[in-house]
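Researcher: Go.
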Amino acid sequence: MKRSQLFLEELVREAKATRALLAVVPFEKGGYKPHEKSMTLKRLTIHVAEITGWFKETLLQDELNFATGDHTPKEYNSIEEVLALHDRLVENATKILNEVSEEEFDKIWTMRNGEHIILTEPKAQVVRTWCFNHLFHHRGQLSVYLRMLDVKLPGIYGPTADM
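Model: Structure:
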């Protein structure tokens, strides 16, 4: 099976779990953070929704340079807006994975900030670590925030204590 199809199957499966988790976020408590060094609930929620957009930067570009362009996080004011963002980005990532050539995954991709190179890896590895594993990490953080706020959690890889 082609890598694009393997990644697409994983994207579809994980997008459902991510959407279910985002849907229970109490956005009115967006200023909550469990520690002074932590992101706020609002910022983390938006970040989790945004990560699926990174398939575009990874597979349609050969580099991401934080020194160029506007990388200011966008503001969203309701969970409905965040869910709509998530849905749009999943749709776009699905389109990209359906159209990308298999050869694209072997190309080298670079993340940098001006002259400072943060990482250089084949695009397939960037999809795994930056597009998927990064999402799983922050989705896990979000589930802890929600548990601390006594929000009933949906199942991600099976039932939760709330089901």
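Model: The radius of gyration is 16 Å.
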